[in-house]
């Protein structure tokens, strides 16, 4: 398991590694959880303390806020190695009545109280990734920490309690991403292609819109790529000569609630009663994440295809939003069923 918490995002990836093959079993995370959120907790505490002691609200002073953010980040880093940190900001504000200074001591215990909920909020994503991988925490052999925020002792402690093993933080977690980029560069250039193979997964399901606006999945989320899947469909009207293929990405049951990637028409279908024509729809994803979608009339062999790259139109925060919307909709359905 790779637990990656950087400055602004959190990711958890479940990997299976064997003989140089890196197989991504599942991935999850949030674009709204990272080191900056920990910094903000310290900033909010400093603002409250200064206002309580002096009656002055520094929140509207841009220069003071910038100094607070820098001091908060520095204190947070120090508390990964020491039990307390001194924050001293002379002349934090000046007014006609004189200048005021900010001087506080923040302890590791206080930091953990302020940010404990942020650490806890990362674990539902871990549980979901494990569920998608069909694994239990005890089946994970190693946990690798990535990103500067993972130097925080509380994170290491919580990870140890969850997985029942010490996480690895060596090599330097702040250099891991750069090291991985260097390895990927070697793979792309061909220097390491014979030594390392990465089998990635698709983060969201891919499929098409079918009758009554239903989203029919053809490739499920967390499917290893490259992959090729085919499903057979038919017509919904007598003597139908054309089929509209609407390609979508997402996890909602209704097509309108998912992200549209492409639309194309397969024309020239032989006239026949409803349900007789056989239309093969094929989704193929290569190792670079390029998706090729084709539709073929089995009888006439007429075919039309389109190529899309889901990541070009869907950013990671949008993926998180889709997953969040799916969870909310499921909860609403459960509440509705309970009322009945």
Automatic annotation (TrEMBL):
Pfam families: HSP70 (PF00012). Residues 304-340 are annotated as: Disordered. Residues 331-340 have a biased composition (Acidic residues). Keywords: ATP-binding, Chaperone, Coiled coil, Nucleotide-binding. GO terms for molecular function: ATP binding; ATP-dependent protein folding chaperone. SUPFAM superfamilies: Actin-like ATPase domain, Heat shock protein 70kD (HSP70), peptide-binding domain. Residues 58-85 form a coiled coil. Belongs to the heat shock protein 70 family. This is Molecular chaperone DnaK. It comes from Salinimicrobium catena.
């Amino acid at each position: 398991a790779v637990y990656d918490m950087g400055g602004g995002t959190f990711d958890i990836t479940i990997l299976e590694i064997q003989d140089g093959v890196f197989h991504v079993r599942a991935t999850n995370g949030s674009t709204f959880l990272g080191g900056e959120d920990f910094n903000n907790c310290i900033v909010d505490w400093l603002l409250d303390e200064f206002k309580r002691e002096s009656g002055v609200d520094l929140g509207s002073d841009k220069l003071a806020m910038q100094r607070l953010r820098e001091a908060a980040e520095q204190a947070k880093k120090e508390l990964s190695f020491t039990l307390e940190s001194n924050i001293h900001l002379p002349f934090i504000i000046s007014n006609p009545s004189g200048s005021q200074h900010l001087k506080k001591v923040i302890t590791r215990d206080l930091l953990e109280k302020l940010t404990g909920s942020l650490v806890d909020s990362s674990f539902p994503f871990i549980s979901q990734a494990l569920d998608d991988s069909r694994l239990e925490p005890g089946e994970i052999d190693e946990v690798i920490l990535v990103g500067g925020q993972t130097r925080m002792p509380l994170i290491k402690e919580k990870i140890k309690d969850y997985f029942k093993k010490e996480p690895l933080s060596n090599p330097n977690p702040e250099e891991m991403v750069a090291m991985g980029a260097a390895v990927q560069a070697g793979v792309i250039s061909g220097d390491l292609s014979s030594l390392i193979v990465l089998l990635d997964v698709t983060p969201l399901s891919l499929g098409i819109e079918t009758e009554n606006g239903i989203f029919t999945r053809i490739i499920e989320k967390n499917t290893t790529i490259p992959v090729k899947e085919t499903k057979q469909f038919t017509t919904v009207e007598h003597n139908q000569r054309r089929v509209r293929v609407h390609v979508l990405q997402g996890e909602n049951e209704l097509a309108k609630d998912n992200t549209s990637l492409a639309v194309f028409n397969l024309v020239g279908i032989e006239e026949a009663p409803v349900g007789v024509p056989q239309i093969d729809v094929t989704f193929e994803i290569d190792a670079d994440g390029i998706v090729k979608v084709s539709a073929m009339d089995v009888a006439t062999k007429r075919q039309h295809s389109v190529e899309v790259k889901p990541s070009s139109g869907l950013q990671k925060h949008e993926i998180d939003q889709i997953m969040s919307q799916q969870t909310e909709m499921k909860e609403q359905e459960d509440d509705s069923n309970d009322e009945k």
